[in-house]
Protein 1
Amino acid sequence: MSALLEISGYRLAFDGFEGRAHVLDGIDLTVAEGETVGIVGETGCGKSVLARSVARLVDMPPGCVPGGGIRFAGQDVFAMDQRGLARLRGHGVAMIFQDPMTYLNPVFSIGSQMVDVIRAHDRAEGKPKRARAAARDAAAELLDAVRLPDPGRLLDRYPHELSGGMRQRVLIAMALTGTPRLLVADEPTTALDVTIQAQVLRLIAELVAARRLTLMLISHDLGVIGALCRRVVVMYAGTIVEDGAADVLFAAPRHPYTRGLLAAVPDLARPAHRARPIPGHIPNLLQPPPGCRFHPRCELAVGRCVAEKPPLRQVDGRLVACHRAEEAAA
Amino acid sequence: MSGALLEVRGLAKRYAQKGGRVLRAVDGVDLRLTAGESLGLVGESGCGKSTVARLVLRLIPPSGGEIRFQGRDIASLGEDALRPLRRDMQIIFQNPHSALNPRRTVFASVAEPLVVQGTSRGTEAQARVTELLRQVGLPESFLWRFPHELSGGQKQRVCIARALALAPKLLVLDEPTSALDVSVQAQILDFLQELRGSLGLTYLFISHNLAVVRQVCDRVAVMYLGRIVEEGPVETIFAAPRHPYTRALIGSVLPPRPSCLPEAALAGDVPNAAEIPPGCRFAPRCPIRMERCLGDDPALAGDGSHRVACWAA
Amino acid sequence: MSLALRRASFAERHAASLRQLRFFAWSFGRSPSSMLGLAIVLGFLLVAAFGPWIAPYPLDAEGAMNLGNRLKPPAAAHWFGTDEMGNDLFSRVVLATRTSLWVGLTIVGMATVIGVPLGIAAGYFGGVARAVIMRVTDVFLSVPGIVLALAIVAALGPGILNGIIALSIVWWPGYVRLVEAKALALRNEPFVEAARAVGASNLRILAVHILPNCTSPIIVKASMDMGLAILAAASLGFIGLGAKPPAPEWGAMISVARTYMPNWWWYAVFPGLAIYLTVLGFNLFGDGLRDILDPKSNRG
C-alpha cells in the first residue's frame, strides 16, 4: 500500500487580537490508500482545521504554517498553483461537512447546482465541458448512487424542500462527482437524527467500499468512528495523542486522554458504567502548556511531562504520545 | 393528589400554517411527574419534545389540555397569575451560548430572577449570586465576566445557577448537554444528579441521547410525531422495549467501540407534523405494520408503570 | 469565611467591558479604510467644534461684502479662493461644517427616536401591532425619500429647519425595518425565553434583553446615515429648499456656484469636496464599525 496522504510535522497557527494561537502542533499522520481513518477529539482539538488543511481550505491569513507540510499523492499541497488546487479539490480530495444547508445555494435547484459542479470538474480535469443535458444525466446517476429515490424529479427541487438526511446525500453525491480518492467527512451526521444517522453512515460505508475510497472521518462521537473506521486517531489540543487500529485502541487505550475520553461517554449497553468526567478544561492555545499539552489534567503527570513534549512512539501495537504510556495500561 | 408535582392531560399545541394546513406539534400528551423523580422525554427532532417543555412552563399557551402544577391547572393562566408560580419551575436550555444575553455579565444574568421576583437586590443580590456560583462550582471572579469569555461548560453552569436562584421544585432540562463535549457533558450530568439529590428537585429531562437518559432518569417517555408512544421505568424500557419505534431508536444507538452498523431498522424520513398519517402515526415507517394500524389509532395502554401505544404490543 | 458583602468596585465590574473595548479598538485599527474613515470623521468634528477659531474671516459667513475681492482664485490669503461677494470660501466651507453636523445629528437622532421603538414593538409583539407598524412603514418606504421630503418642504416652506423636519419624517422607516428584523430574531432566543421563564415583564425584556442587542446595527446604520443625511440636506440646499444664502451651507453654496462654472471652478469644487469627504468618511467609519460590532452581517 502506498501513502496517499502524508502530513509531517504540520503546524498551524492563527494570529488574533490576543496573540498567536497554536492550533496544530506538529501533526504527523500518514494515510495509506484504502484506509478508513477516524479522527476523534473534543472542541478545539484541531480536528476540523486539520481536515480543511488537507484540501488547503484554511484562510491564510489569519492562519499561517510555521512548519511542516502536507503531501497528497506525493505532491506538496502548499506548493500547488490555482490549477493544481482545483484538481486537488474534488478530483483528489472531496469533503462533506456537518451542515449540508450551508453548502447548498438556496436559490438554485439541486439539478442546476450539481450540473455546475460536474462541469467545473470537467474543466479542472482539462476535459471538454459536458453539455448541460449530459451533465444532468450524470447528476441523476449520482443521486441514484446515493440511494435517493426518483432522481429525475429531485433534480428540479430546491434545497429547502429536502430533509436534512436527503441534503446530506445530495452533498455526498456532489462530493463524488470528481471521482475523488480521499473522502474527508467532517461530522457528517452530527446534525441528523439517530435513525437517519444510521442510514447516512451506512451509505458512506457502502460508497467507500464500492469505490475504494480512502476515508478520513472527523467526529466527536466515538460511536460513529467505531462504526466506520478501522483506524482511530485521537487528538487533544492540537496534537495527536494516540493513533492505532480501532479494536486495539478502544479495547486498551494507552494515552490517559484516550482513557478519559472513553470513560466519559455514557454507554447504553453498560448501564452500570457511570460516565466519568475528565477534570479540568481544555488549555488556552495562546499559551499552550509546555511539554505534553495534556499534563495539567493528567493524573499520571510527572516532571518530565512538563519539561518535554512526548513524541509519538510505538507502544503495544499503536502510536502513543505519552512518556508514561507503558504504565498507563487500562 | 398522591404527590404528583406535575400532571399533564391531553396536552396539545397546534399551529396554523399557510394554505389552511394545521401543524400538530403536540397532539394529546399525558405526563405525570411525582415530586423528586426524573422523567426522560426522548425522541427525534420535530417530535414535539421541546414544545412540551415550553408548554409545561407556560412559555407558550397550549391549544388544548390540562397542565396541573402542584394541583392547580395553569393551562389558561395569564402572565400575572403565572409570575409567582414561576419561582417553582425553571428551565435549562440546550445551547448555553444563546441562553445567556451576550450583553450582560454573569452577575446580571444570574441575578435577573432575584430582581424580577423582587427577592433581593444590591449587595444582598451580589452575596446570593456569589453563593449560587459557588454552588455550581464557579469562582467569584466570574461575576463580572461576559458570556463570550466562558467555555461551554462554564456557561451551562451559569445557566444552572440562574435556574436555581429561585429555589425551584421542577427543573425542565431541554437537551442540557447536547451542545457540550463528552468530558464536559459528564461533568454537567454528574453535577445535575448531585443537585437533584441534595435539593430534592424534580426533572423533566428532554434529550435525544438515550445513553444519557438511561444514566440520569428514573422513567422514560418516548415521543413520536407529537404523541407519547411508550412510557415506563428506564430499566424496563431499555431492557424490553415494546414499541417498534422505541426498538428502532435503541437499535440505532452506536456504542462507543468498534461495531457493525446497525441494520437500518427504519426506512424513510421523519414525517412532517402537518401531515400526520391516519391510524397509527408510526405505521408508514413501521417494520411490523398490520392492516389495523392504518385505520385505528392505538392509545397508550398497559399496566400502571409500562404503557405502550401499539396494536402489536 | 469572609464572603464579600462589599459592593464590587467600578473597575472590577467593568473590567470585562474594558477588555472588550480594547479588542474593538484593536480590530478597528487593523483596517486602514476604517482608520481613514475615523480620521475624516474626527477631522469633521474638530472643524465643526473649532470652526470660528479656524476660519480666517468669520464675518464672511454672515453675508459680508468685499466686492473688491470677487472671485479670486485660491491663493495664500484665500486658500479656497473667494466667491461672487468677495467672501473667503475657506471660512465659509469651514463654518458650514457646524451646520452640516447638527443637520446630520438631528435627522439621524429623530429617525432613531421614532424608528427604533416602533421597530422593537413590531418585531417583539408581532401580530396586529406588527402588521400596522410595518404597513405604515411600507407606505413611507414606497415613496422615494427625497421626493417626499421635497413635497413636505414645499408645504412647510423653504428653510433649513423645515428641511430637517422633512428629512426626519422620511428617514425613520429604515430604522423600523432594521430593528424589526433584529427584534424578530431575538424574540425566540433562549435568553429571552429564560427571562420570560423567571417572570420578567415585556417592558423589562424589551429594555434589558432586546434593545441592547439591537444597538450594534443601529450604531452602524446611524454612522453611515450621518453622511447620507448631510448629503440629503445639501441636496435640498442645492435646489433652493434648504438653507438660504448667505447662511453658509455646502449645498446652497454649490447651487450658487454652478452659474460660475467652469471658469471659477474653485467656488463649486471646495464645498463639493467637503461634502464628498464627509460622506466618504462616515461611510468608511460605519463600514469599520460593522466589521467589529456585527461581524456576521459583514457584507451579506
Protein 2
Amino acid sequence: MTLIRMNVNGSAKSLEIEPRVSLLDALRERLGVTGPKKGCDQGACGACTVLADGRRINACLALAIQYDGCQITTIEGVDHPLQEAFVRHDGFQCGYCTPGQICSAIGMLSEYEAGMPSAVTDSGGLGEAEIRERMSGNVCRCGAYNGIVGAIMDVAGSDAR
Amino acid sequence: MKPFAYVKPVDIGAAVAAGAAPGAKFLGGGTNLVDLMREGIEQPDTVVDVTGLPLSAVDDLPNGGLRIGALVRNSDLAADRRVRARYPVLSQALLSGASGQLRNMATVGGNLLQRTRCPYFYDEASACNKRDPGSGCDALDGFNRSCAILGVSDDCIAAHPSDMCVALTALDAVVEVTGTGGTRRIPLTELHRLPGQTPHIETDLAPGDLITAVELPTATGNSAYRKVRDRASYAFALVSVAAGLQIENGAVTDIRLALGGVAPKPWRARQAEQLLAGGPADEAAFRRAAQAELASAAVRPGNAFKVALATNTIVATLRELSNEGTRR
C-alpha cells in the first residue's frame, strides 16, 4: 500500500492504495466521487473523463499512483456555462456520459484556446466539424450528439454550422 | 489485475536497472499497458514508472533535425510548432490517432511499443501465438478485417496499430535506446520485427532497454498522412499512408512512403519508392508503384479489400502532395 495525495475538486485528499488501483476507482470507490462514470473501463467511451492539472484524461486507464500530487477536477468540481447549455440543448438522454462529456468539453475548449490543432483543422474556427472531431473520445449511446455539439457551440460562441 | 510492485526511478540508470529485472515492465502514460494488465494479457511483477525521468523535451538538433524526448505526450508533440511546420505528416498522424484524452496521456516511447489490437490477441479464450506462443492463430480463419496483409506469417497476421510510427518511419526516424550495455541508436525501420515463427517477439529491445528519444533528420519537403477507417474519428486504421514527396520539373526528386494498418510493423514501402524515384510524378506512376508494393500481399477473406484500399490511398495521398507542390 502506498500513500498518495491529490487535490480533488479543491479539497486535499490522501489515501492508501495498491498500485493497481485506477484513478477512476480511487475517485469512485475510495473517495465517493461518483461523477466520473465507468462505462467501458478500457479507454473506449470517455465516460470517466476528468481533468488532471487541467488536462482531460481517461481516469479508467490512469493508475491513481501516477497522479500523486495532482489536481483532479471531476464534474462535482465544475461550475461552467456548459452545464446550463447542455440542459438548454438537450445534450443528453440517460445522462450517463454527461459528466465525461462536460469535463472533456472543458478540456477541449482550453486545448483549442491554447492553439492545439485537430485532424480536421483548416482555418475556420471552432465549428461543428471541429467539435465533433475533438470530442470523438466521448461516446453517447443515446445518440444525443446533436445536442452536445449544439451546447458546446453555444458556449464557444461558434456560429459556423 | 494481478498485484505488482511499483517503482518510480528519477534517473535513467536506475530505470534501466529496474527494467532489466525479470518480470519488469516500463510504464509511460498507461493507455495501452494498463488496459492489457487489466485483461491479464500483460502480467508484470514490477511496473517501472518512467514518467519521472527528464525526457519530456523537444529540441532542435544542430543539423536541422529534431530530438523528441520519449516522454513527450502525443498531444504536445502534435501541437509543437516545429513539428507542424517541418514534419506535418507527424502532427497529422498523431492527431488522427486515439482521442483527445488519450493523446494527453500517451507518450512517444509508449506509442512506439504499443501492442496490436487484433481481437484474438485481446481474447484470452482464443488461440494467439503472440499472447500464448504455440497456441495457434484464430485470426487466420476468423474475423480478420483489421489484420495485416504484408509481412505476415502463418503464425500471425496481427497489424501494428500505431499512426505515429507510420509517420516516423517515413521520416527516417532514429530511436535512441539506453540499456544495461549503454546507449545505442536504432533506425525505426529496424526496431520492430516481423512475426515469422516468433510473433511474441515484437522488437529488437532487450530487458532493461529504455527508449529515451526519437531523432528526426532534417525535413525534406512537403508531407502528409491519410488514414482510412471504419468511422470518421477515434478508430484504428484499416489503411494509412504517410508520404513525403518532392517534385522538380515534373520528376520525383524525393519520395518517402510508409503504410499503416496493413503490416505487423510500420511498413516502409521501399519497392514503391524505388519505382517512383527519378520518374514522372503522375497518377499512372503512383498507381504502378502502389500496385508493386502490394504485389506480395497475402490476404484472407476478411481483409482482401485492403489491397485495393491501400493502393487507392497511396495514389490519393501522392496526388494530394503533387497538387500542393504544383500550386506552390
